[in-house]
Specification:
By secondary structure, this protein is an alpha+beta fold.
């Protein structure tokens, strides 16, 4: 393009023909490279990639000058090669171009956020935080799973008034992140690949499957809320707010006013459709992002124990030993400063979400061409030493002491807070979820500081501290710290007890919700089976549970929530590797058809293990797992091990199929065995005893011990986390306590921990 008179091109690295500088940008930590270039070429420079000009802004002031002050031309979004209709389709508000659909949707999103503050929606984050803390206390090494559960369940409740869509939401949302991230799908880097026809494009096929599943879920969620409203049992949610207001004639994102009744109905449905997408996008945004700073908090506490001690002191003195509540925020400026500093120290969206410029522009003598993609490089903005001295250091004081004039602000009852923070974008496209983020982070970080002392983990063999990385983050648009080891020690017995009480209260509510939404849940779990969307293991810790269950269907009971029926064997079957050793726990009466990661041919006919309450990750899979590279070999072998183990009482027939005789199990001894090189099968029960898990005594049965759970948790060697819950329910006709077992049977796993408790069936 010819430069306008008096202007010059932006500086930047020399571009190679066609590819520009693609080869220089690493897949992981790309923002570090762009930051490095900012040191060489200045706070605003350009690169080219496959013909597209990318402008990188590393100064908050320049980002405001362009994206906020000149918002009339800098508020568009670029086209995403791997999602070519992102600017027009109306499916994802955050990715829409600057058009009427975006304006309407943004307004509606704003309205829903605003009115939700007035409704009782905001109990949800506290409820889920309470559930989260106890789960974390039980197995800190499962932190990623529990954090993801927290974020997706909280936003599901906010969006649809129920946590049950959370699991599929995680699944489809992660897929979307891959679809749109430069490092997630090749066409986003090599843009001409987007022209491949569907049949030849693995990226398009994958995206289509993902989108179909997402669409089904969103529609079903609306249907669910409507049905609940009809019977007066809909919990508060964004979508309920919308539907209620629409019924009352209040809110409408109306695309057109219509004359006839039919037209009016159609227009209403179009509005509902639009609201469905707006709320869907809010759910996606919430499920994707908030886990990043929660994980970064744990990372920060490993490296900066002194700040943890100070935070605990603030909470202990101001709240007299109580766990922080949202209402306490005025009293806890340090906690708010920690929240903000975590985001500054490790920005969740380090490259920013790009804008696009619609008309040629000149800034400070530099020419910026129409159509360029404009990135506010959040990583660099948080490292600007003039605003954040010693930027690499985690230092919440920068928001609390007047000696940091560029970031300090009074009154401390109000500041620091996240409102207007650069990390949530600029101009007309700023993030609309800040109030949710603020509350979620305040509650989780405050809750963790109240409950735990987080430390680096000690190697039991050498006694030395296990290393914790400093800045090893996942490569997609929303970056999260890669897994690291740490310990979370409950600070005292009283707090542990309190956590348990808080958890019980949270789960109690959930049980009610579950029974209400069971039909819906079963349907959505069915889609999960259809969905077969594959994800990267390292990113999606629950993957093997998602993919891995045999076509015996029932092998894993997922969140079926079905209590065992008296007279029918509820066969608890646990098959996991214990540090390289296979454990099978079961009464062997069939059940356990198809195990995670098998080649999918198990046709379990036996009674199905079913649990009254299951954890999220026990999701029904499709029996076609095993294609995952990480799992294939071991999964297959575990499948056969599983079958033969079950065969100790059940019958193994044909090629891997497992059948059983339900009635024979009553009163029979459960089979417990260890297999493998490092353990004798005979010492299985002793080993379990040693782990604190004992068979329930008659007295305990007599007492009708309820709600005691034995949790067997397997962490796969590919860092999947699977959990088994054995929950004593009611005494059966036989006078014993039945155990429902929820097992995400994630073969290839190691049992990482067995929570002490009693089991029996
Ligand atoms: C730690 C959590 C979060 C971070 C760091 C974050 C960050 C961002 C950023 C950087 C943008 C782009 C701003 C721009 O283009 O200038 C954005 C957009 C957006 N965010 Fe968030 N976000 C978070 C959570 C949420 C949540 C929970 C919601 C739920 C409502 C949400 C809703 C949105 C929406 C709707 C947009 C698009 C606005 C538009 O394009 O007009 N975000 N966010």
């Amino acid at each position: 393009k010819r430069l306008p008179a008096g202007s010059r091109p932006l500086p930047g690295p020399t571009n190679l023909p066609l590819i520009g500088r693609v080869h220089d940008v690493p897949e992981k930590g790309s923002w570090l490279k762009f930051y490095e270039w900012s040191k060489v070429y200045g706070p605003v420079y350009q690169t080219k990639m496959f013909g597209v000009t990318h402008v990188w802004i590393s100064s908050e002031k320049i980002a405001h000058d362009l994206l906020s002050r000149r918002a009339n031309i800098y508020s568009d979004r670029p086209q995403i090669p791997n999602l070519p209709d992102n600017r027009t389709s109306g499916d994802y508000l955050a990715l829409l171009g600057r058009n009427d659909t975006w304006k309407r949707q943004r307004k509606l999103c704003n309205h829903l956020m605003h009115t939700s503050a007035l409704a009782s929606l905001h109990d949800y984050p506290t409820l889920e935080r309470n559930r989260f803390l106890y789960l974390l206390s039980q197995s800190p090494e499962d932190y990623i799973e529990y954090i993801e559960q927290f974020t997706s369940r909280t936003i599901s409740r906010l969006s649809w008034g129920s946590a049950h869509p959370a699991q599929i939401l995680r699944h489809t949302t992660f897929g979307l992140l891959e679809t749109i991230s430069p490092s997630g799908a090749l066409p986003n880097v090599i843009s001409f690949l987007r022209h491949l026809p569907l049949a030849l494009s693995p990226w398009q096929k994958k995206e289509k499957a993902r989108h179909d599943l997402e669409d089904k879920q969103f529609r079903s969620n609306i249907g669910f809320v409507r049905r609940m409203m009809d019977v007066g049992r809909a919990e508060p949610s964004f979508i309920r707010t919308f539907l209620e207001e629409q019924q009352g004639g209040g809110v409408s994102s109306s695309k057109k006013s219509s004359a006839s009744d039919t037209d009016e109905e159609k227009a209403k449905e179009a509005d509902v459709d639009e609201a469905m997408h707006v709320v869907g996008l809010m759910a996606i945004a919430g499920a994707l992002t908030i886990g990043s700073p929660i994980q970064s908090y744990i990372l920060a506490m490993c490296h900066y124990p002194e700040w943890q001690a100070r935070l605990q002191e603030e909470i202990d003195t101001k709240l007299a030993g109580r766990c922080p509540m949202w209402e306490d925020r005025e009293k806890l400026p340090l906690l708010r400063a920690v929240v903000k500093e975590v985001i500054r120290w490790r920005p969740p969206v380090p490259t920013g979400i790009p804008h696009a410029i619609e008309k040629d522009d000149v800034y400070d003598g530099y020419f910026i061409p129409a159509g360029a993609t404009i990135h506010a490089l959040e990583w660099a903005i948080t490292r600007d030493e003039s605003t954040y001295p010693s930027a690499e250091t985690f230092n919440p004081s920068r928001f609390l002491l007047p000696s940091y004039p560029s970031t300090y602000r009074e009154p401390l009852t109000l500041y620091p807070n996240l409102s207007g923070f650069s990390q949530f974008g600029f101009g007309r496209r700023t993030c609309q979820g800040v109030p949710i983020v603020e509350q979620d982070l305040f509650l989780t970080m405050g809750g963790m500081a109240w409950a735990f002392t987080i430390t680096k983990k000690t190697d039991p063999l050498t006694g030395s501290e296990l290393p914790v990385h400093w800045n090893d983050y996942t490569p997609l648009l929303i970056a999260k710290p890669c897994r690291f080891p740490f310990d979370a020690h409950p600070r005292d017995e009283g707090k542990l007890k309190k956590m348990r009480e808080m958890y019980d209260e949270a789960v109690e509510g959930e049980e009610m919700e579950r029974s209400e939404s069971r039909e819906e849940r079963e349907r959505t779990e069915g889609w999960m089976v259809e969905g077969k969307v594959r994800q990267k293991e390292e990113e999606i810790p629950w993957q093997s549970a998602v993919e891995g269950v045999g076509a015996g269907g029932p092998g894993v009971f997922g969140r079926s929530g079905v209590t065992g029926v008296a007279g029918v064997s509820v066969a608890p079957v646990v098959n996991v590797d214990v540090r390289g050793t296979v454990v099978s726990v079961g009464n062997g009466e069939g059940g356990g058809g198809g195990q995670a990661g098998t080649q999918g041919q198990d046709q379990g006919q036996g009674p199905q293990p079913q649990g009254p309450r299951q954890e999220e990750k026990s999701v029904v899979g499709n029996g076609e797992a095993g294609e995952d590279e990480n799992h294939e070999t071991k999964s297959t072998s575990t499948s056969s091990r599983t079958s033969s183990r079950l065969g100790s009482r059940g019958h193994e027939s044909g090629s891997g199929s497992v059948t059983g005789t339900p009635s024979a199990s009553w009163g029979s001894e459960p089979s417990l065995s260890f297999r493998g090189s490092s353990a004798e099968s005979s010492d299985c029960e002793e080993r379990l005893e040693a782990l604190g898990i004992h068979r329930q005594t008659e007295e305990e049965v007599e007492e009708g011990v309820k709600r005691r759970r034995v949790r067997i948790k397997a962490v796969s060697n590919a860092s999947s986390t699977i959990e088994a819950l054995m929950v004593p329910t009611t005494p059966s006709e036989k006078g014993v306590v039945q155990l429902g077992v929820g097992v995400g049977v994630g073969v290839d796993g190691v049992v990482d921990e067995i929570v002490p408790g009693a089991w029996r069936w």
